[in-house]
Design goal:
The chain is an alpha/beta fold and 327 residues long. Helices cover 22% and strands 35% of the residues. It is built from eight helices and 19 strands. Bound molecules: S-adenosylmethionine (SAM). S-adenosylmethionine binds next to helix 6.
Length: 327
């Protein structure tokens, strides 16, 4: 028997983020889902988060059943990646070149162990301004449209025409947990609007931009799907560098175009209010040699830096939180 924190579904992700951050979440056990509630397993008897403490039998992880490579021959097991991205019911795998003859077996094993997956495809890399992923289906539907569930939200997209990364879910959770009053937010490279919607769900008024017209199409559907009132968002199919914001200023700006972001920092610094924050995403060396301070105007200060995930053996995706101080 272990302690669980029982919270309503709408508070579940906020609670998880808090518990995980503070080290209170017992990751040996799975959350228990009840009708409109989630019970998070705890490492200790109680925690400083609103909810009911319930002592009951924990739901043990059965990790083995999730490893689709368990019954494979050693040779194929060495090629098949342990982890892969999932967008809705589409699994996206990276395989080394020369492994084509094993693709079918790998896809079959994956479909057998993950009943929620309907399509398996190979990731051939991301390219161009729109950061679109080249995908090749090895099993299932050749239609790349799916609905992805994340932190209690749903994002629908055709991932052969727009960018989406499920690996940014923790970042979206982190940013929305920073909001404690309605803010004016600019999401300058919005894609299908996962960051924008996370912010709008916290009562922010969001302005979103993306130069890919397909991104706008799916983003508008996603705002509607999330039930966000039109008063709280506006989306423009435009390039950030060309868009004229007039006198408009923002409390918070999200710059999530990590392979090409430095050219846009100056414009963002001019658009943020005093005490406002810019979340600046960039791929840079893991060794700490990137000096953000060289690019910041005098009144700006970096208040936090986080490694989001590895990008290559020597580089990672980092986020820098940058604050505009009073002068
Ligand atoms: C790395 S993706 C991030 C998308 C989104 N923030 C997300 O988390 O899913 C970058 C996005 O910026 C868009 N983009 C690239 N250059 C742009 C520009 N100059 N102005 C506006 N959008 C741009 C691309 O089409 C792409 O959707």
């Amino acid at each position: 028997m272990i302690s669980h924190l029982r919270v309503a579904n709408k508070k579940a992700e906020e609670a998880k983020f808090f518990l995980k951050n503070k080290g209170y979440l017992n990751e040996k056990y799975l959350p228990i889902k009840e009708n409109n509630f989630v019970l998070w397993p705890l490492n200790q008897a109680s925690v400083p988060f609103e909810g009911e403490i319930i002592i009951c039998k924990g739901l043990v992880h059965n990790r083995k059943s999730r490893d689709y490579r368990l019954n494979m021959d050693k040779k194929i097991k060495d090629i098949a990646p342990r982890s892969f991205d999932i967008f809705g019911d589409i699994a996206i795998l990276k395989l080394p070149s020369g492994s084509e003859i094993y693709e079918e077996q790998i896809a079959e094993a994956l479909l057998l162990s993950h009943k929620n997956i309907k399509t398996v495809c190979i990731d051939l890399g991301v390219h161009g301004e729109f950061r679109i992923r080249d995908l090749r289906v090895i099993s299932g539907n050749t239609n790349f449209i799916s609905i992805h569930k994340e932190n209690g939200m749903e994002f629908e997209a055709d991932i052969s025409k727009v960018y989406f990364s499920p690996r940014l879910a923790t970042e979206r959770e982190r940013l929305s947990s920073l909001i404690n009053k309605p803010e004016n937010v600019l999401d300058a490279f919005a894609g299908v609007a996962p960051f924008s919607i996370s912010m709008a769900m916290k009562g922010c008024k969001v302005t979103s931009l993306d130069s890919n017209p397909e991104a706008m199409k799916w983003a508008l559907r996603n705002f509607n799907r999330s039930g966000i009132n039109e008063k709280y968002f506006s989306f423009f199919n435009a390039k950030f560098e060309d868009y004229d914001f007039g006198v408009q200023k923002f409390d918070r700006i999200i710059l999530n175009n990590p392979t090409n972001c430095l050219p846009f920092l100056d414009k963002a610094m001019n658009l943020v209010v005093e005490r406002g924050i810019i979340h600046f995403y960039i791929i840079c060396p893991k060794d700490g040699s990137f000096q953000l301070s060289k690019y910041l105007a005098e009144e700006f200060e970096c208040t936090a830096k986080r490694e989001v995930h590895a990008y290559s053996p020597s580089s990672s995706l980092f986020v820098f939180d940058i604050r505009r101080n009073l002068v």
